[in-house]
Specification:
The chain has 335 residues and is mostly beta strands. Helices cover 12% and strands 34% of the residues. A hairpin with a 7-residue loop joins β15 and β16. It is elongated, with a radius of gyration of 26 Å. Pfam families: PHYHIP_C (PF19281). This is Phytanoyl-CoA 2-hydroxylase interacting protein. It comes from Sphaeramia orbicularis (orbiculate cardinalfish). InterPro entries: FN3_sf, Ig-like_fold, PHYHIP/PHYHIPL, PHYIP/PHIPL_C.
């Protein structure tokens, strides 16, 4: 009768990306020479089942032929970015009759997948480019809030709207979620008037600032996300960061920089003749969410009551989850 296999120990996870990882563990030289297969059990941490290792002789997830360690795991799991997982392993020897001699399950190890890498953001960017529509002129960025917000800014912040940490709305793997600070602005206009919409889900007061204060040659423009919330329309998240700023440094290695004068989302065109004004344009068929990474003073613009009467709170994107079934804005590496 074959000797029992020792339990894999010292499980190590390395080279973790948003959709792959490598795993290795310690085995005795004898087991290394005998093992023909590895069994790997992987599950999301939040859905751990205490009975999932009950039948130790039944591979519950992946059966892989034994390979030199570390072993790459990708494609089998549809791993999601920024998600905590639990993993355990068995080693096995396939018997002549087709059954397996297996070790005990190893200890359970937890790890978290990473953000979208630049190549994954490129896939998202390519999809977003196909949904933008024509460019429309605009003249102001605007930010809607409730009166309490602006009262607080004036009384406690010296009139400065300070950057806040980006929430987890949109694509789960966006590198700015929970990591980059900024102040969100909109710039979309209505087709018939060329002005900002009359309604807003974010509050009845609107701060407006001339577009050139936030979008000019001293600003870097980055693409950060493309998503929808179970709706027909889509959102594009852009980042504006003053050149050389902390926000610019953060984005430079994580996001795709866009040409200010030539991109399908948000453009700045410099004056061609003396006395001319710059021209600003936004994409017409997506809703732009523009994150400016520095404080903005209320004195740079004006705060006014909007004329709309309907506060559509259900349309806010705060911590909104991306529709995982949408073929327009999802990419192959997860949500």
């Amino acid at each position: 009768m074959d000797a029992a296999l020792s339990t894999p120990c010292n499980i190590q996870i390395c080279e973790v990306t948003c959709d792959s990882f490598r795993i290795m563990w310690d085995m005795t030289p004898e087991d290394t020479a005998r093992a023909t297969h590895f069994f790997i059990d992987l599950s999301r941490k939040e859905s751990r089942d205490p009975n999932r290792f009950k039948h130790r002789d039944v591979p519950t997830k992946l059966v892989a032929k034994a390979v030199p360690l570390p072993m790459a795991v990708r494609g089998h799991w549809f791993l999601s970015p920024r998600t905590e997982y639990c993993v355990a392993v068995q080693t096995a020897v396939r018997q002549p009759d087709g059954d397996y001699l297996v070790s005990e399950w190893s200890q359970v190890v937890e790890f978290c997948t990473g953000d979208y890498a630049v190549e994954h953001l490129q896939q998202l960017l390519d999809k977003a480019k196909g949904s933008t529509g024509r460019l429309l002129k605009f003249s102001v960025f605007y930010r809607n809030q409730h009166p309490e917000y602006f009262d607080y800014v004036r009384s406690h912040c010296g009139g400065l709207m300070r950057p806040a940490l980006k929430d987890n709305s949109g694509s789960h793997g966006s590198p700015i979620n929970g990591k980059l600070h900024g102040v969100f602005f909109s710039c979309n206009t209505e087709f018939d008037t060329g002005l900002p919409p009359k309604d807003s889900p974010y509050g009845p007061l609107r701060f407006q600032i001339p577009a050139g204060h936030l979008l000019n040659p001293n600003i870097s423009l980055y693409f950060a996300d493309f998503y929808c919330m179970y709706t027909a329309y889509h959102y594009v998240v852009l980042v504006l960061a003053p050149v050389g700023s902390e926000g610019d440094t953060f984005c430079r290695t994580r996001l795709h920089m866009l040409d200010l004068a030539s991109n399908p989302f948000l453009t700045y065109t410099a004056p061609q003749l003396p006395g001319e004004e710059p021209q600003f344009c936004h994409a017409s068929d997506v809703i732009l969410e523009v994150l400016f990474t520095e404080p903005v003073h209320l004195d740079q613009g004006s705060v006014q009551q909007i004329s709309g009467h309907h506060q559509l709170m259900s349309l806010t994107t705060a911590n909104a989850k991306k529709d995982p079934s949408c073929k327009v804005c999802n990419i192959s590496v997860g949500r």
